[in-house]
Design goal:
alpha/beta; Rossmann fold; 7-stranded parallel beta sheet; two-stranded parallel sheet; 42% helix; 16% strand; globular
């Protein structure tokens, strides 16, 4: 298995499949840039010439990413933001615009969820995921779009969502992300006159720090959830996001690109473990299918 598949990527030396200087002269904002897919996106965009601003709630994580990037001579900065609060998102986008004078791409990678049977969600648990993954994404999208409209500059938004099929145990995030997809499709039309493109990336099983919320037994089965029999790295998802959101994807608008190894066509992802009710059905099917 390659380093990319194992998830032990060195962002300084990992090869990039996109053209060098693809984002030269551009400013890229990455929410959730302190870890996982967001961090990988920030590194790639900066190595391709962009001035990158990573955003998130935890300043310590953001500073760590920025300092590592600056040590390699990359143009990086950070902005602390709580995307769940509309005023905070607005303030962050305003600050970045004032600092860099323009923004070209917003990648919304911030989000969070926890594995749990939907029947047992508390009100607070449900609202926390919806407020972050749906409302928070919208707050960042709208703030950026209004700047592009008012400055008459084109812009691009990529929202990191989830695969919409075969993912169980996180119904709250599926609901929120489905809202983001529908929202993105709608505003891709409404914002067309402003030359603003809006797209989504739907990752399948991806190895990031977020895996810590799932038990080890469940994680070890994630490679079996797609016909390629492996999980993705954050780097692979980030490259897809930057392809769609950058100059190479200039005529891609209102789309959802699933990056899941065809898992949605074949596999299942049970974030809480596969219940016996379904496991028994699978075993019965397999036993009947095996030759004598």
């Amino acid at each position: 298995m390659s380093e990319a598949q194992e998830g032990t990527i060195d962002p300084v030396t990992q090869p990039i499949s996109l053209a060098a200087d693809l984002f030269k002269g551009q400013t890229v904002i990455v929410s959730g840039g302190g870890s996982g897919i967001g961090r990988a996106t920030a590194w790639i965009a900066a190595r391709l010439g962009a001035a990158v601003v990573v955003c998130g709630r935890t300043e310590e994580k953001l500073v760590g990413v920025v300092e590592a990037m600056r040590a390699e001579g990359l143009d990086a900065d950070f902005e602390v933001v709580d995307i769940r609060e509309r005023a905070s998102a607005r303030r962050a986008i305003d600050n970045i615009w004032n600092r860099f004078e323009h923004v070209d791409l917003l990648v919304n990678s911030a989000g969070g969820q926890f594995p749990k049977a939907a029947i047992d969600y508390s009100e607070n648990g449900w609202n926390a995921v919806i407020n972050t993954n749906l409302n928070g994404t919208w707050h960042m999208m709208q703030a950026a779009a209004q700047h592009w409209r008012d400055t008459r500059r084109p812009g691009s938004i990529v929202n990191i969502v989830v695969v919409g099929r075969g993912l169980f145990g996180v119904a709250h995030t599926r609901a929120a992300r489905a809202g983001v997809i529908a929202l993105s499709e709608a505003v891709s039309v409404e914002w067309g006159p402003y030359k603003i493109r809006v797209n989504c990336i739907g990752p399948g099983a991806v190895r990031t720090e977020g895996w810590a919320v799932y038990d080890e037994k469940t994680r070890n089965k994630y490679a079996l959830t797609n016909p390629l029999m492996r999980v993705a790295s954050a780097w692979e998802i980030a490259e897809a996001a930057l392809f769609v959101g950058g100059p190479a994807g200039g005529f891609i608008n209102g789309e959802l690109l699933n990056v899941d190894g065809a898992g949605r066509h074949w596999g299942e992802i049970w974030t809480t473990g596969k219940p016996n009710y379904f496991a028994e059905a699978t075993r019965a099917w397999d036993a009947d299918a095996l030759p004598e």
